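Can you please make up a protein's amino acid sequence together with its fold in token form to help me picture the idea?
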Amino acid sequence: MTITQTQSRSLLGLKDLSQNEIQSILDRAAFWEQHANKTHNLLNGKFVANMFFENSTRTRTSFEVAEKRLGAEVINFSAAASSVEKGESIYDTVRTLESMGIDAGIIRLKPIGLLAEMAPKIKVPLINAGDGNNEHPTQALLDLYTMQKHFGTLKGLNVAIIGDILHSRVARSNLYALRQFGANVMFCAPDDMQAKDLDVQYVSMEKAIKADVVMMLRVQLERHSSGILKSADTYRESYGLTVARASQMANHAIIMHPAPVNRDVEIDSELVEAANSKIFPQMANGVPIRMAVIERALV
């Protein structure tokens, strides 16, 4: 496999992926959803390394389940118990695992831009499991899959993403992918949580909750100690999806959240598992989506 072929099998982000490429992953995920509870031998003999240089629960576990469903051998790498703690660079660590014969790497890391810089030097496919506040492509794919499954189409769908946009890789990947399908994306955030580099309309909370999809983000209050919103209660009052606000949503609208959820901060606890909430179905959809992405990388 040449480096060019390797790059085409990698998934570093959705910004440059076409609608057809994204739809092919969603379609394959629909196939795997029908077989998600069975173990297959498709990747028998393949070694996949989960390289998480940043903490994760849902993403890491979802990838591991997907890998094992496909029959791959799984190597779970923990930065806390590795030579990274001794000063080894992330690049050298990835090259070390590559040299030992892995066939693909799932990678999450904090530094912005490092993944794009490193990927061309690595000869095995890499799948982005979240890099800084840049992108989180598989999260956005499972989000699109959840919306498409519920509404039948993404074209013309009004999607409001509410919360800490500034630090959200989820918001960025969703924005890039949803626009490919003709969805209307709007953001809602306090001034100090807005991403000024993104060309998107910011709307009021009153308008945001009228969307077809109301997607709440985890608010990272620890990053805004000097900002205008200094407490969870203040944030909830102004930007939280409260029961009162949720009652103003359209009857057909759905609630989404990439998790982890700060209950009673960005969303009231009783709404997390409400009838119109897709939060836990989103998590379930992560397995077939990641099965499709891993298959794309290795088959």
Summary: The first helix runs from residue 3 to 9. The mean pLDDT is 93. Residues 138-283 form a domain with the Rossmann fold fold (CATH 3.40.50.1370). The first strand starts at residue 47 and ends at 52.
